[in-house]
Design a protein that fits this description.
single chain; alpha/beta; TIM Barrel; two-stranded antiparallel sheet; 42% helix; Aldo/ket_reductase_CS; NAD(P)_OxRdtase_dom_sf; NADP_OxRdtase_dom; EC 1.1.1.-; oxidoreductase
């Protein structure tokens, strides 16, 4: 598995496994199957309601803890120093782990500076190996960096062929923040799996559209966390390191960029209100 090196020297697999919408035994079985398929990066969140299942799967797998990279997140309702400290303890207890590899602010709303202070303390205490954020637009991220003097290791944002985030990616690179893609398959929208451009490229390499998308992301240095409850698709998704897209193919995919979210805007007041009151909408 290829890896990226975060700004604090921690290594992170460039391809992982997401568990959003997987619950209970289904989630547990999926994580066990993903571990058997070779995945070592797993991405969950307090709001997904499946941290316990992920922890159970890790325990049953028998894989040494140091071989795994576990990410979790807390939502807007847990923003603030005290609430974040409590949310972290709740998550680490559910996951049944001694430490978290990556802890993320799920949404850029509420008392994020109080949360960031708590996260830094947990990081300095060795309870978290790296801290970062999700869904932070460049202006919000720069505000956090400048006013905390502590740069996030990761920004997890919507990234897929129809919303490619080239400008934001460049901004993150310039500020030494790793980009990570949620929704790499565009949540199945815009006919992504039957798209003519992606399908033609898939045929060229004798791969699937999903494999082409994941290769396109990782080839750009974007960490991806696809999700599937089906073992055959887990194996398919991880089998992307035996080919490389040509410059011509990369340019062809770039034409698909609409430069806007297919889901929602984090600058929409209604979305901000909803996320602040209920914690999340997606991802």
């Amino acid at each position: 598995m290829e890896k990226v090196i975060l700004n604090n020297g921690v290594e992170m697999p460039i391809l992982g496994f997401g568990v959003m919408m997987l619950m209970g035994e289904e989630c547990e079985e999926a994580v066990i199957n993903a571990i058997e398929a070779g995945y070592r990066l797993f991405d969950t969140a307090e709001l997904y309601g499946n941290e316990q299942a992920v922890g159970n799967a890790i325990k049953k797998s028998g894989i040494p803890r140091e071989e795994l990279f576990i990410t979790t997140k807390f939502g807007s309702k847990e923003a603030g120093y005290e609430k974040t400290m409590a949310a972290f303890q709740k998550s680490i207890d559910a996951l049944q782990l001694d430490y978290i590899d990556l802890y993320l602010i799920h949404q850029p709303f509420g008392d994020i500076f109080g949360s960031w202070r708590a996260m830094q303390e947990l990081y300095n205490a060795g309870k978290i190996r790296a801290i970062g954020v999700c869904n932070f637009l460049p202006d919000r991220l720069m505000d956090l960096i400048v006013n905390s003097s502590f740069t996030p290791a990761v920004n997890q944002i919507e990234t897929h062929p129809f919303h490619q985030q080239h400008e934001t990616h460049q901004f993150l690179q310039d500020n030494n923040v790793q980009i990570q893609a949620w929704g790499p398959f565009a949540e199945g929208m815009n006919g992504v799996f039957t798209n003519e451009v992606l399908s033609a490229i898939a045929i060229k390499y004798n791969k699937t559209v999903a494999q082409v998308i994941l290769r396109w992301l990782t080839q750009r240095g974007v960490v991806a966390i696809p999700k599937s409850a089906h073992k055959e698709r887990m194996l398919e998704n991880i089998n992307i390191f035996d080919f490389k897209l040509s410059d011509e193919d990369m340019q062809a995919i770039q034409i698909l960029d609409t430069k806007q979210s297919l889901l929602f805007s984090h600058r929409d007041p209604a979305i901000v209100k909803w996320m602040s009151e209920y914690g999340w909408v997606n991802n």
